[in-house]
Design goal:
7% strand; 3 domains; single chain; alpha/beta
């Protein structure tokens, strides 16, 4: 498929800032169309006239600031990726931007970081190019939490829990894990390397920032619409994700990749949550097809949506700014042979862990989910007996 040229909207209340951005990004004019709007009202008018792949807004603007503009954009133009620029390090600005911005960039922004962010916003179209699904994913906002987990996390925060205890609670919830890593890995914090460990993310953000984020998540989480697909097993899905995460980490021999494998496993099925909450009727139909025909859910999803929860989850994680190795593992955990990434350790671990954990589920129909052609290609077939033993051991251990 040949994708159309991307279109980016830049918003600031100062003309000289817009001119500086135009000069800075002049080399990119052949890759995407750029439109510059002075102020939020002009931006909303531009959005009403034509579709945009991404909006890049300054935070501090009179009348309507960046957070309010992106809130409007999220509601009225949900398929547009939302990026905010802020040069103010106060917590209030960051916290107001977190629920509505896919990326938070420091101002003045490093030109290389801005270019990379814009290219990532456009690259998601290669992972997922379906307007209906794009609108559903971009408009999903805060993903549905398990109330019991939220209560446990809030109680721990009120008792001034430390980073290790908070991390152990967070790791049980894929949506909150992803949100925490989205914030800590945003260019705003200027980290030299991505953080993929939830414990390190909590330590970096600080207890007070975590307290504010959790309280905010509870407020937004209480206003989900529409509701999930009838019978959607959210708790079972989170238990499966936690088990796959722990098995994935155990399968990785390189200790440096262990945290990345854990996080990839935690969020590998997050696309199911998006589909179930954003398109409940269609997701219910896909679930029924899978059950009646004895097929994996991702095959039935492709029949109904034209793509599976793997691509949907990867799309969401990509616009959130997650490391590309995690995005790639999530996108291809059912179809690893289609992956284009050069580093396959994480993908192999997630694919194998997901398949072997499903094998242990007595409710699953017989038949392997392993893509043997891929395992032969990467020379992993001989390790399957060892990996099955590791999976059986780890899957029966109580969660820490």
């Amino acid at each position: 498929m040949t994708l159309p040229a991307g279109r980016i909207l830049f918003v600031d209340d100062e003309e000289d800032v817009l001119e500086a951005l135009e000069d800075l990004l002049r080399p990119e004019r052949y890759q995407f169309e750029m439109v510059f709007a002075k102020g939020a009202e002009a931006a909303l008018a531009a959005l009403a006239r034509m579709p945009f792949d991404a909006i890049v807004s300054d935070m501090r603007m009179p009348v309507m600031d960046g957070a309010e503009l992106l809130t409007r954009c999220k509601t009225e133009f949900p398929s547009t990726a939302r990026i905010i620029l802020t040069g103010h390090a106060d917590k209030d600005s960051i916290l107001r931007a977190v629920p509505v911005a896919h990326q938070i960039l420091d101002k003045p922004c490093d030109p290389a970081i801005l270019r990379k962010t814009l290219r990532s916003a456009l690259a998601v179209r290669e992972v997922l190019y379906d307007d209906r699904i794009r609108r559903a994913v971009m408009g999903a906002g805060v993903l549905p939490p398990v109330p019991r987990l939220y209560l446990a996390l809030t109680g721990a925060l009120r008792n001034d829990a430390g980073a290790p205890e908070l991390a152990s609670i967070l790791e049980r919830d894929p949506s909150m894990c992803a949100k925490v890593l989205q914030v800590v890995n945003s260019a705003y914090f200027g980290l030299p390397h991505p953080i993929v460990s939830v414990s390190r993310a909590v330590a970096h953000l600080g207890i007070e920032m975590m307290r504010a984020l959790v309280l905010m998540a509870e407020v937004f989480g209480s206003d989900q619409a529409p509701g999930p697909a009838e019978g959607f097993p959210l708790k079972a899905l989170q238990q499966h994700s936690l088990t796959v995460a722990r098995v994935s980490k155990a399968l990785i021999q390189d200790s440096k990749l262990a945290d990345e494998a854990l996080m990839s496993g935690t969020v590998h099925d997050i696309g199911k949550v998006v589909l179930a909450y954003a398109l409940p009727n269609d997701f219910r139909r896909a679930t029924r097809i899978a059950s009646e025909q004895g097929r994996p859910i991702h095959e039935a999803e492709r029949e109904v949506f034209g793509m599976s929860h793997a691509e949907v989850g990867a799309y969401l994680l990509l616009v959130w700014g997650m490391p590309l190795s995690i995005v790639d593992a999530v996108a291809h955990h059912h179809t690893p042979n289609a992956a284009r990434g050069e580093s396959l350790e994480i993908l192999t671990a997630i694919h194998v862990a997901d398949a072997l954990v499903h094998e242990l589920d007595p409710a699953e129909r017989p038949g392997s989910r392993l893509q043997m052609e891929y395992l032969v290609r990467v020379g992993a077939v001989s390790r399957l007996p060892e990996w099955r033993a590791i999976t059986a051991r780890v899957a029966t251990l109580p969660a820490s």
